[in-house]
UniProtKB/TrEMBL annotation:
Binding-site residues, NAD(+): 112-116, 143, 145, 149
Keyword list, A-Z: Metal-binding, NAD, Oxidoreductase, Zinc
GO MF annotation terms: metal ion binding; oxidoreductase activity, acting on CH-OH group of donors
Full protein name: Glycerol dehydrogenase family enzyme
Binding-site list for glycerol: 189, 267, 284
Chain ranges of the Alcohol dehydrogenase iron-type/glycerol dehydrogenase GldA domain: 35-171
Length: 398
């Protein structure tokens, strides 16, 4: 069963989201880089009765600035929380809120899950949608895709939407109030574009896919060059350049590449980990960043790929500078049981998992071995790369 079929069954929809080759969902209709207060005109052009969707904390924090913008433009608004998660149950409840308020516009404000909820709700109700990211942790503000989770936060499936948001409001001052850790996570998620797209689509001949893969390489290089400096100077020009990379350029790649430029093992590992409750304390991009190391480790172990081995060593150094997780321990999963690790690996190796876009077969036991050896040294690498010796914690494979 495809993810779209699942989605239709789950929501009773009769219209399938157009993810065929005929449709290109490259970018939001409009992207404005201004303060939330200055975005009123752009929002008011899209509707008069917005439903504002976010987490309870975000809605409470931004209530006064939002109110002044919306009242200034005489918009009759209602607020709703997406809690407990971007789940089928929340969506059913929110559809009722849309009907009760007779909303003609959805405004999503918050992190990836709030924005994913707003986008898919707008898609279901056939309404325009505005995304206002409050952190640079993902490119969810840009893309025509939503991830659906269980009420307990376990990843279930993703849904392709029929268009990118109608308006994206990028307010740097809002993003600057988010913990630094969210930008670090966004860097991890954005880095995955290159490591995954080059595997899933590296030999594609389609013009836009080639463009997407090359942009993923540009994105990786921008992050390698600017991230460390950006993190020491929040709010600076270089910091904005890195925010643009994680929120906008990462979205461009998803838009150009679409469904044919897919995630591979890094996101499959993330999806498996979300089924371990203790993994909910780490952010999406943190789990994905760790997943990149696992993917490279699989390429080393199962394919003898030496380029993957050096890429992993390069990333380990970069992660150390940024504070991105390198191991299960770093993700707060140092004391999970073997059974939990096995469960995550089995889910990541499930029949429809993107891990199978790797050019070789991966079994759960092999994935588990890769998951516990992300920091293992490559033969001779200590000398070549002048890396300090790294212990392999709890390694099952060696
Ligand atoms: Zn991601």
């Amino acid at each position: 069963m495809s993810t779209n079929q699942k989605f239709i069954w789950a929501t009773g929809m009769t219209k399938q989201a157009p993810t065929s080759l005929l449709y290109l969902n490259v970018a939001p209709t409009q992207v404005v880089r201004c303060s939330l207060e200055e975005s009123g005109n752009a929002i008011a052009r899209l509707g008069n009765r917005p439903l504002i969707l976010g987490g309870q904390h975000t809605l409470a924090t931004l209530a006064s600035s939002l109110e002044s913008v919306l009242e200034q433009h005489q918009l009759s608004y209602e607020c709703a929380s997406y809690s407990p998660d971007c789940s089928e149950k929340s969506l059913a409840k929110l559809s009722e809120a849309v009907a009760a308020h007779q909303s003609d516009l959805i405004i999503g404000i918050g992190g990836g899950k709030a924005l994913d909820t707003a986008k898919i709700l707008a898609h279901q109700c056939q309404l325009p949608v505005v995304t206002v990211p409050t952190s640079a942790a993902t490119c969810a503000a840009w893309t025509a895709l939503s991830n659906i989770y269980s009420d307990h936060g376990a990843f279930l499936y993703d849904v392709g939407l029929d268009h990118c948001p109608d308006l994206l409001v990028l307010d740097y001052s809002l993003i600057q109030t988010a913990p630094q850790r969210t930008l670090v996570a966004g860097i991890g998620d954005a880095l995955a574009k290159w490591y995954e797209a080059s595997v899933s689509s590296g030999s594609a001949t389609d013009t836009l896919i080639i463009a997407a893969v090359q942009q993923a390489r540009v994105l990786r290089d921008i992050l390698f060059q600017k991230s460390v400096e950006a993190l020491t100077q929040p709010g600076s020009q270089v910091w904005r350049e890195v925010v643009d990379a994680t929120v906008l350029l990462a979205g461009v790649i998803g838009g150009l590449g679409g469904a044919r430029c897919r995630t591979v093992a890094a996101h499959a590992v993330h999806n498996g980990l979300t089924h371990i409750p203790a993994a909910h304390d780490s952010l999406h991009g943190e789990k994905v960043a760790y997943g990149i190391l696992v993917q490279l480790r699989l390429e080393e172990m199962l394919q003898g790929n030496q380029l993957a081995a050096s890429a992993r060593q390069q990333l380990l150094k970069f992660y150390a500078e940024l504070g991105l997780p390198q191991t299960l321990q770093d993700l707060g999963l140092g004391s999970i049981t073997l059974a939990q690790l096995q469960k995550a690996a089995e889910i990541a190796c499930g029949e429809n998992s993107d891990i199978h876009r790797l050019p070789f077969k991966v079994l759960p036991e092999q994935l588990m071995a890769a998951m516990v050896s992300t920091r293992i040294l490559v033969e001779g690498s200590r000398k070549e790369l002048s890396l300090p010796a790294v212990e392999v914690e709890g390694c099952l494979s060696e």
